Each structure stands twice: as C-alpha cells, then as structure tokens.
Amino acid sequence: xxxxxxxxxxxxxxxxxxxxxxxxxxxxxxxxxxxxxxxxxxxxxxxxxxxxxxxxxxxxxxxxxxxxxxxxxxxxxxxxxxxxxxxxxxxx
Length: 92
Ligand SMILES: [Zn+2]
Fold this sequence. Notes:
Elements: E1 2-7, H1 20-30, E2 37-42, H2 48-71
Bound molecules: zinc ion (ZN).
The site of zinc ion has 7 residues, from strand 1 and helix 2.
C-alpha cells in the first residue's frame, strides 16, 4: 500500500509515498496558489503509475545485464579429465 498525490489540473509528481502524511506534506509544499490536490491510497499491485515506472526501470536494467553478460566469456568446459582412482600397477 502506498500513496500518490493527485493534482486537480495536472498529473505531475506521481511518485509514491509510503505514508499519507509524507504525501500530504510534499503536496502542500509543491502546491501553487489555488491548486488543489488529493492524496490517494493505492495498492502496490494495481498502481498503474508504479507499474509503468517499474517497466521502464526494468527495461534499462535488462540492457545493462545484456551488456555485462556479453563481456564475460563462455566458461563452460566439457570433457574434463578426472584423475583415475589409484590402482598403481606396481609389481614387485
Ligand atoms: Zn504507485
């Protein structure tokens, strides 16, 4: 659960707040004269704003991961020779 500010005539500053107080405090500071707002409580799972944000962040991260994995070489080896358990053929 988190909170967003909904401005009366714009969609600016849709960043999430953890508490109602935080959201209201920020909104009060940012509000221009005559501008009104409401603080909305939303679920983490259904919040469209956060999901959009999340997707963008993930997309960025993906490209970074791809770059990193292409740098590291292919280090899978097959047919590695194991030392045989010792039956030393010593007659004598
Ligand atoms: Zn949200």
